Amino acid sequence: MTKPQFPQVLSIAGSDSGGGAGMQADLKTMQMRHVFATTVLVAITAQNARGVQRAQVLPPAMIDAQFAALAEDLQIKAVKTGMLADSQTVQTVVQNLQRYDFGPLTVDPVMIAKGGAPLLADEAVATVRDQLLPLATLITPNLPEAEVLTGQKIRTEAQMRQAAEHLQALGAANVLVKGGHLGADQAAVDYVLLANGRDFWLTSPRVATANTHGTGDTISACITAELAKGVDLATAIRVAKAYVTATIREGIQVGHGHGPLNHWAV
Ligand SMILES: Nc1ncnc2c1ncn2[C@@H]1O[C@H](COP(=O)(O)OP(=O)(O)OP(=O)(O)O)[C@@H](O)[C@H]1O
Ligand SMILES: Cc1ncc(COP(=O)(O)O)c(N)n1
Description:
This protein is an alpha/beta fold. Helices cover 37% and strands 21% of the residues. It has helices spanning 22-32, 60-73, 87-99, 125-132, 143-150, 157-169, 215-228, 233-249, and strands spanning 8-16, 36-48, 51-57, 76-81, 105-107, 138-139, 174-177, 188-193, 199-204. Adenosine-5'-triphosphate binds next to β8, α7 and α8. It comes from Limosilactobacillus ingluviei.
């Protein structure tokens, strides 16, 4: 009897010991979306819903070895990046993404945790912008990340559109600017600009909750999972927005502070 097969996907990210964000959020999301998740771990954080206590980056040779192990045996259909820590790590990841064909690349340019801890060194911003961004099928910055990458202030929907155009000019094929950081009185509005010039807005009611740890990881992991199944990008983004909205709306209570999402939500 033939055994069931699932598309294989890859999360390149840091570990969140608290289980809410980072690689753990990616794994939970990918499992829920019925793809087979693999990982390249680049950093370890001691973290909970209250914040990040400590972080340690893995040596480049260990990162290379994880990529080589996957390339030798698996058939990765789509890949995403999350926390990349520093410039050397970004460069190591870029080299490996150029070496192996792992399918469409979603770049979540993670910079600062919800609690305020830096997850990307300042010196690495230019490396992300100049070396990683041009490889991206899709880049998914939140507003502060889009501001850092473009050098533009983003407070309005018109500025979200301008930032997306700027990110495309920097080399990202498609752009999703996430509006989770817009004011508490505003809806959760995201803007999508596709490679073919088409664009659209995704709007959902803002849920009044502190439990939004890992929303960015979850939406980008869900997009990656859908792309691995062969779903077109615009549909993958819509599906992922609906999924992340459900994980926030049907929230659970774990820990204190910025608690994690309900990845079981459908
Ligand atoms: N309170 C909320 N209610 C509903 N949707 C939200 C809320 N907060 C964020 N979102 C949505 O969640 C998704 C992630 O956006 P956000 O801007 O929070 O990303 P992020 O800051 O990268 O997330 P994180 O850093 O927590 O991983 C977007 O679709 C956004 O609109
Ligand atoms: C290892 C790791 N990766 C990513 C995030 C971003 O998630 P958030 O902004 O919700 O804290 C995080 N906190 N930790």
